[in-house]
Write a structure and sequence with these properties.
five-stranded antiparallel beta sheet, 2 domains, 18 helices, alpha+beta, three-stranded antiparallel beta sheet, 481 residues
Amino acid sequence: MCKNSISKLIEIIKEDISILIKNIQEKESSFEYFISESKKNRDLLTISFSYFLELLNKYSFNYEKLPLENSNFDFLGNRWNLFNEVFITTEYINLEKRFIFYYFNIVESFHKPIVIFYLLYYRIFIEFFLLSRDISIIFNELLSKWKNSFREQKFLVTFIIPIPIFLTYDTFSIDENIQIRYILAHHSIDKLNIEELNSKYYFQKFIDGNYDFDPLDDYLDLVGNCLFFNTKLSFIYLKKNNKDDVLKLKNEFNEKESKIIELINTFYLFGANFKYRKYTIELPWWFISPLNKFKRISKDTSLWGESLLKEENKEDFFELYEKVVKSKIFVSSNYRMIIRRYHQIFNRDNYADIILDTFIILEWLFTRKTKAELAYRLSLNIALFISSNWREFKQNNNFINDLYNLRSSIIHGGSGIKEVNKIFKKYNLKDPRDVIKELKSILNEIIIRLVNLLIKDHNILKKFDDKHFFFESSKVFKTDL
């Protein structure tokens, strides 16, 4: 690859993008309006790749047909030859023989060179027109990412998860690869949206200032705070009978998902109360990223929780997250019962499901190796584990025992409503829903204590089977736990 070819390709792209923008401004008024508005709140604006491709062919290449299925790309002229010289190198020459990676529970292939050619233009257009960056700098950054990816056989991806934790500042950095920041995401600009907007009789009047509402409201999405997790995924050259390699890719991806759940669960431990919604993934520039999923996600108002991370308590969160990571409580198969249930508890809508899931964890921890007198042993062991004085012990013991009776009522066909009302009155709670809040609070206290123990001794659960609690013995032992 010679520098001269790179320089020539950059100059051609500059000219093509310039022609495209000039025609958009002169002939695509609705599109231009989308773009101008996006510059005010530019994060995660998406433009339909197919619509961009149509405009680029029409205005820059004077080609009205869909080119991606053709085998003859003479209409692209020297730009196609230069692209192949710069990007389709010996490292990538086997593209047609199928490189694959794994995400969203599917095995995905790399695109053909012609698609990557258009995606290069697509990314440069977005970075230049929306973010006002220099095309030469953009091009060299994209080329560097491409070459580094094939050198490492990995590429950088970003998991993006709406996380409705109210912040007192715009960005909350957890580490160099994880941060929460506020975004305002537009719905993807596509041909259908543009045509629909063009058909609205008020559009031109709005531009002239005769209306006091925005016709783009239907295409604008307020997402709020999102968690950004930057990591790398591997890819392989697909050979026959290489199921083991595909399994490795799948396991690698599952590990990334586990890290996300670990972080979300840490927020729950910290007191957050929100519903988790599936992430979307921003892939490298040579793929089409599915960012339009934000339209569906952000309109679910049940997302929003009650928690607030403040500047003065963020160090406490960092400390807790560091301990959770060290303990491996949300990633190790040794604690799969906790992993499987804990996350569900904070994403359930039905109080009965929350109670049952919670007691599955509690029984797994505190009634090991015995099936006799479960309610008595469970409440006693939990009270011993979390209480620091006799008064706390009595209250915790009684509360867990009452909740266990509620759990038994639900299992045996009851609604549990009478028991919930009885409990909230007995313990002077403000609302019946506070019964569930108290149960979650106790569970979190147990998990946090367990995290601290696991850091000191990863085999601590084996001691739970011994004499530290009232399991097999008729006596109660309280040790340094």
